Amino acid sequence: MAGKMMHAAGFIIITILLAGSTPAVANDSTPIPADGSQVGSWFDNNVKPLTERKGTLDAAIVTAEDGPKLIKVMKDGSGNFKTLTEAINSIPERNTKRVVVYIGGGVYNEKIKIPQNKPFVTLYGSPNNMPNLTFDGTAQKYGTVYSGTLIVESDYFRAANIIVTPDGIRPDAQAVALQISGDKASFYNCKFFGFQDTLYDYKGLHFFKDCYIQGTVDFIFGKGKSLYLSASEDNEFSFVHCKITGTTYVRGTYLGRAWGSSPTVVFAYTDMADVVHPERWSDFGHPERSK
């Protein structure tokens, strides 16, 4: 697996702010600018309104975004549903239209799964009152892959302005906040909290912008792909214009460890606090993976 984050000694909390990474080269092949202040305009120039991009998108996306459906989840009963589970269950299988699930503020204690046969789903919260999706699932009970509070298996998923966290972030509580295995997913202004294995970037093309991810051991891991292919496996994590901060008793936090045979991780234009181990990377006891 690519890019497993880890600590070497002491208790550590790491935070990462993803502000400009992208799963594909820009439309005009211009690279992400080195100047962080230009990332916003670079993004706007390349991710244009649907009306200006129909000729560059696959037909399924164009069809899905033409007349999307809105449903509301409100804890006070003023929406279409009180729970996200009910809202997801209401979406027909093999849907071809975008379904935007607006989530009102509050804490939603549910284990949420977007199955493979329900593409084009958006979870959207208010940026001023972000909903918190939480569930007390652990790897010991469900296994790492299925311990996620939010599990997304479908393609063309989006999320904006939501918080996802396992219930009870505590030492030895290995639990995934988000497991994403669908292709062509994007996340905007989302926050993911956990202890160990916070974000399981399982597989597929995924884009995170202005997101916050916090955890300790291996808190970002998987075989997702972004920016470009690695030499021998179809996976890579690229963090662009990010911030890595945290607390630890010693400078013992590696940027990643070689959990699999061909891990590839890129940090570009990124601010790193002195919490990062001077050696930067761990070969995880496999010197042949150092390259």
Automatic annotation (TrEMBL):
Main location: secreted
GO MF term (any one): pectinesterase activity
PROSITE patterns: PECTINESTERASE_2
Single biological process term from Gene Ontology: pectin catabolic process
SUPFAM superfamilies in the record: Pectin lyase-like (SSF51126)
Enzyme class: hydrolase
Leader peptide range in chain numbering: 1-26
Pathway linked to the protein: Glycan metabolism; pectin degradation; 2-dehydro-3-deoxy-D-gluconate from pectin: step 1/5
Domain Pectinesterase catalytic: 72-228
Alphabetical keyword list: Aspartyl esterase, Cell wall, Hydrolase, Secreted, Signal
Catalytic activity: [(1->4)-alpha-D-galacturonosyl methyl ester](n) + n H2O = [(1->4)-alpha-D-galacturonosyl](n) + n methanol + n H(+)
Subcellular location: Secreted, Cell wall
Active-site residues from the entry: 218
EC code: 3.1.1.11
Top-level division of the source organism's lineage: Eukaryota
Residue stretches in coiled coil: none
Annotated family: Belongs to the pectinesterase family.
PANTHER family attached to this UniProt entry: ACYL-COA THIOESTER HYDROLASE YBHC-RELATED (PTHR31321), PECTINESTERASE 63-RELATED (PTHR31321:SF87)
UniProt name for this protein: Pectinesterase
Species in which this protein is naturally found: Prunus persica
